[in-house]
């Protein structure tokens, strides 16, 4: 090993965000500030200059922005993500001779040292080195200043004033000697999505159950009639399970019965029949034209249609005949149907993603997504992505987003944590979560802390679902109306994106197939339902208020700003979110016990919000539109599940005391 | 982007140890088990095979060892670090078709499925694929087994028995299909040091103060006479401040006085005079021959001599004249002396490590270390490494350790945490720490948790010093004898390596230069001292007992096994260490209040130690050699600083209930 060439002495490490050593992009939302931090230091006591450089991935020119020293060798810089797509960022830093000299001189002056002429002379030398690189006027100016520092006729006081002047610093910064600069060796990537990637309110519904009369198969036209109802509640994404032809071989009957009754509709996830596969619409729902009409009308209501991507086939899918090589055939000439023990999907064949013809298969599947993209669909809920190769999704999503950077992919992966995170890293825009099974205060606190306060926040965008067609949690089965209200508010205020499977949710459908099961009794997955949305006990007014609160309070539209507040009652969970400028502070309290009234003391962290904890604050109850005045950092509260198990407050005070520490919001 | 070639589906991530993405080696001790963990997973539900591969850095052949699944996609493998120097390790893993088939078949059999002939037939096909790669006899055996699984005459029961047999598994493992194997792309490094790198007991002393009579300058011969005293106390490293000629220009006087009195000895760190520099011995101490004699005698006492590497020069160092280009000259023809505001070192010139002649300078400095290595020295305490370039040390240490892998470098860097950690990462064997300033229970708990329970444990080996010639902490200034005893036990039992600056320590020297200062009054740095080690109140007997406890209890010889135990008194700190096999369990309690008796309840985590918490345990007090019988997981304790502020117990029980979870010791 030879003594090392060069004089790069700066270390840049601990860069954040940097996902898996730069293997994956971090995520941001258009218009948001991207904050980059790093540990930057060198040996000795000299002063460092550090810059954050960034550019759009498809552009050549880097933009530079000076990084600020925070504390403990940590530095921070930021830029605005003003376009969709990928941005690159790097960091460069060096030991800055001029800034070191300036700081040293400042200390000597402050210590009232008199013998600083030699130091001023040295400074002149540093400036004269820079003159060599400076352009005409700047060079002349710097040259003059160097002469002043060397001059015998200028007073020491004036020389010091010049040395400390902003004008000199500015020019020296412009022509700084970067010959010893160290540049972080990885170009890191941040992927910028549209607003809805970060803030979205989903309503899942089976179009075939949208008919206004029992016994009739619903259509896209029926869905159109349902739009005002959905829009009024405040949802902006309407997600349909697969809308394609359904196979008849081994078609499932009511409650997942293996032998179907004649005329049963089958499950929409058994995709493909003689009439076609993933690019075809089930004729019972209507035509492609009907779909376009529905999409256009939805748009008028501020609603986007999201479709389901379920890459699997019924035994009747055209692929089975046209591309038998895309399936794994057993020695007896059959294809093993899908299994996820103990679940069996006798009506579904998995695709063999590892087939030798996989290039052809993968391209075909891409063409399915692009087909729907061309029909105007930009949001996809992807069914069970964890049972297909990671590299397939990484490839597919990057292919689609290259031309359609507004595309959104929601990963419906209920599997082990590392796999769920991997899918988010490789490109999924949003992800299903464990929220559905996190019901106690400690479970919720621990899980949300992981999602919002660790590296996970940079790549995993949670989408919280209190229920899905597959999951009716015991809490909803047994908790009655208060349980549905509590879970809705938790989902809607803990996570900036959430969804419900309706009308089952707002009609508080709570019967499981059997005790201990999370499946719905008479699940809509296997039959056409007729929902009485006009029922008096429909939760729609409550949902409407909660979703309006989300729209009107920007702090509920992000997650990294979540903080849990102490309470002295394990049944009461309390948390708050606030915007960085503190103009919007929301405090939420939920009684997690749906059966009993609960009361307790709630921490109201006025000082942490930059408010005056000596003065009263105003708490506006956003669900009941009442106003209370609170005094001090603790407030007693009682929540009766029989009236409403939750309250959402907006906190204000006449005069703000100051800003909260910036890192609070990071 | 084209659909990706190949069928590698496994992800390997979160490898541990992996320091800064593999930029730096982790550290281990010869004979120790190196445990490697990683998250390993793929899409789907198939079974994975994973191997840890390792080799010495200078050898070509990898050795493979099967990794075991722990939980939550975490896998673990290990190997023994049997030689000094660097080892490389990687991980390879694949989706294992045979193991998947076997697991699937097992589930079907357990579910009493009858129609498994097709599955047995598929298994035969998998085995026949492997036959193609198997050698003669193995191939024939596998081929036979495949036929059995396909045969019509063998019973299903016998086929299943064969499918599940260890013999089949073993051969299938041997010839496993690795065509889809993923190998972790980084070759990670672990650096293996000798035992003393991890477990060492240091005694620092100024040789010039070793004379037996006041007024005489001590010599190496005097040091020899001191060896029995040091060895009896149980120290195995004897560290000397620089032993080189001391400059006379600007030589410091008593208490760091700028103008020295005539005849003052100066500070040993002002290295270099007309008689020579870093390769010369101060003639007042003796000759190189005397040094050799001392080293040899020390060795007989089980003591190794450690020298100080202080790369800086007095103005009289030969380098200043011979290599003026190695110093930074100011326009007035002077060299700016060293400063570390507010400290001024007028008698010391820093070397300019960034000089254009740095190759020559760096080589010269390397030759200094190699000179002492050739004199038999293998342990170096490096003075202020954080004021020299990181790359210099990285280069120097790797150069020395290439030929002398038994060399040990202790970084004397008292600076910001990230810089201290960087020095450890780039190669320093041991490091000074903040222990000297961590005195309360929460400070100690927080700091030790960082050192022993985070990634830091892989690269940073702490060496705890209750005092140094530069630091007399207020706790020692004011706490009297109990404070010295408490700090000694904390250093000696919290950290496997520790040291004291003596005889100041055992004689409880506690006068600061002035109130608020951490400098000693009449510091030995600036004068020759005469220590009355025969004083009655010398702590040597106590130190002897503590160091014997360290030698006799292997669990005190490592750090990753440290666990804090709850107490109900903030003045009582309690912690324990145990070997992985639970044969050695040590519990330490210290009263941190040197002025008042303290009592409280101490948690004795019998169950976590694999002991029966229903039965009494034996607690042998290793400082007083008494035995107590304790019952249950809480024990009341009283510690009177006036007798002894600390107790060290060895815990045993007649019958062990079982082993603690393996991860406890990781």
Which tags fit this structure?
homodimer; 666 residues; alpha/beta; eight-stranded parallel sheet; six-stranded mixed sheet; 15 helices
Strand proportion of chain A, as a percent range, falls in: 15-25%
Arithmetic mean pLDDT of chain A: 94
Task: State the largest interface.
Answer: A-B, 52 and 51 residues
Unreliable spans of chain A are 656-666
Helix content of chain A: 25-40%
- How is the largest sheet of chain A built, in terms of strand order? 20-19-18-13-12-11-22-21
Description:
The structure is a homodimer of 666-residue chains. With 666 residues, the first copy, chain A, is of the alpha/beta class. Chain A is built from 15 helices and 30 strands. In chain A, the strands form 7 sheets. In chain A, strands 20-19-18-13-12-11-22-21 form an 8-stranded parallel sheet. In chain A, α7 links the parallel β11 and β12. The interface between A and B is large, with 52 and 51 residues.
What is the strand and helix layout of this fold?
2 copies of one chain form a homodimer.
Chain A: E1 11-16, E2 26-29, E3 33-41, E4 48-56, E5 63-66, E6 68-71, E7 74-80, E8 85-95, H1 97-110, H2 117-131, H3 136-150, H4 156-163, H5 166-174, E9 182-183, E10 188-193, H6 195-198, E11 200-204, H7 220-233, E12 237-239, H8 288-300, E13 304-309, E14 312-313, H9 318-322, E15 338-340, E16 343-345, E17 349-350, H10 358-374, E18 379-383, H11 390-403, E19 408-412, H12 417-426, E20 430-431, H13 441-453, E21 463-464, H14 474-494, E22 497-501, H15 540-552, E23 562-565, E24 572-578, E25 585-591, E26 598-603, E27 617-621, E28 626-630, E29 634-639, E30 646-652
Parallel strand pairs in A: 2-10, 11-12, 11-22, 12-13, 13-18, 18-19, 19-20, 21-22
Antiparallel strand pairs in A: 1-3, 3-7, 4-5, 4-8, 6-7, 8-9, 8-10, 14-17, 15-16, 23-24, 24-25, 25-30, 26-29, 27-28, 27-30
Helix pairs in contact in A: 1-2, 2-3, 7-8, 10-11, 14-15
């Amino acid at each position: 090993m030879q003594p090392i060439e060069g004089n790069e002495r700066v270390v840049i490490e601990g860069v954040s965000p940097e996902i898996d050593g730069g293997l994956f992009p971090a995520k941001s939302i258009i218009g948001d500030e991207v904050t980059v931090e790093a540990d930057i230091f060198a040996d000795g006591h000299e002063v460092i200059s550090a810059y954050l450089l960034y550019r759009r991935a498809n552009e050549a020119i880097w933009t530079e922005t000076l990084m600020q020293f925070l504390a403990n060798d940590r530095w921070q810089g930021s830029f605005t993500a003003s376009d969709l797509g990928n941005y690159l960022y790097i960091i460069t830093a060096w030991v800055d001779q001029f800034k070191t000299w300036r700081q040293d001189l400042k200390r000597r002056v402050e210590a009232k040292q008199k013998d600083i002429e030699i130091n001023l002379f040295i400074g002149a030398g540093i400036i004269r080195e820079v003159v060599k690189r400076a352009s005409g006027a700047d060079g002349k100016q710097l040259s003059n200043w160097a002469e002043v520092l060397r001059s015998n006729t200028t007073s020491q006081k004036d020389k010091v004033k010049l040395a400390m002047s902003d004008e000199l610093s500015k020019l020296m910064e412009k022509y700084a000697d970067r010959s010893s600069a160290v540049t972080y060796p990885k170009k890191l990537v941040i992927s910028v999505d549209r607003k809805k990637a970060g803030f979205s309110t989903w309503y899942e519904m089976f179009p075939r159950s949208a008919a206004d009369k029992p016994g009739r198969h619903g259509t896209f036209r029926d869905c159109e009639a349902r739009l005002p109802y959905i829009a009024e509640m405040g949802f902006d994404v309407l997600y349909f399970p697969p809308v394609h032809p359904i196979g008849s071989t081994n078609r499932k009957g009511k409650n997942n019965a293996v032998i179907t009754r004649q005329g049963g509709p089958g499950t929409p996830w058994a995709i493909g029949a003689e009439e076609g596969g993933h690019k075809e619409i089930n004729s019972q729902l209507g035509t492609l034209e009907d779909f376009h009409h529905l999409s256009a009308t939805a748009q008028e209501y501020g609603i986007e249609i999201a479709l389901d991507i379920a890459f699997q086939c019924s035994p009747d899918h055209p692929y089975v005949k046209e591309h038998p090589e895309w399936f794994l055939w057993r020695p007896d000439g059959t294809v093993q149907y899908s299994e996820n023990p103990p679940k069996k999907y006798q009506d579904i064949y998995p695709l063999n993603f590892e087939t030798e013809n996989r290039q052809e298969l993968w391209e075909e599947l891409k063409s399915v997504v692009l087909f729907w993209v061309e029909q105007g669909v930009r949001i996809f809920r992807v069914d069970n992505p964890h049972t297909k190769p990671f590299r397939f999704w990484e490839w597919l999503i990057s292919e689609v987003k290259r031309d359609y950077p507004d595309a959104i992919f929601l990963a419906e992966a209920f599997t082990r944590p590392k796999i769920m995170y991997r899918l988010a890293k490789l490109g999924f825009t949003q992800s299903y979560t464990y929220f559905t099974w996190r019901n106690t205060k400690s479970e919720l606190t621990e899980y949300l802390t992981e999602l919002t306060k660790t590296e996970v926040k940079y790549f995993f965008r949670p989408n919280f679902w209190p229920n899905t067609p597959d999951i009716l949690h015991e809490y909803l089965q047994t908790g009655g109306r208060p349980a549905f209200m509590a879970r809705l508010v938790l989902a809607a205020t803990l996570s900036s994106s959430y969804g419900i499977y309706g009308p089952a949710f707002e009609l508080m459908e709570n019967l499981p197939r059997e005790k201990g099961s999370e499946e719905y009794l008479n699940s809509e997955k296997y039959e056409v339902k007729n929902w009485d949305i006009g029922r008096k006990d429909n939760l729609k007014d409550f949902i409407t208020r909660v979703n309006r609160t989300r729209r009107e309070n920007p702090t509920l539209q992000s997650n990294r700003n979540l903080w849990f507040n102490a309470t002295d009652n394990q049944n009461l969970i309390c948390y708050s979110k606030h915007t960085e400028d503190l103009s919007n502070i929301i405090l939420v309290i939920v009684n997690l016990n749906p059966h009993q009234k609960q009361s307790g003391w709630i921490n109201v962290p006025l000082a942490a919000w930059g408010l005056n904890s000596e003065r009263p604050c105003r708490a506006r109850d956003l669900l009941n539109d009442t106003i209370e005045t609170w005094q001090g950092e603790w407030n007693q509260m009682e929540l009766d599940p029989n009236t409403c198990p939750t309250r959402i407050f907006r906190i204000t005070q006449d005069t703000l005391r100051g800003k909260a520490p910036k890192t609070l919001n990071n």
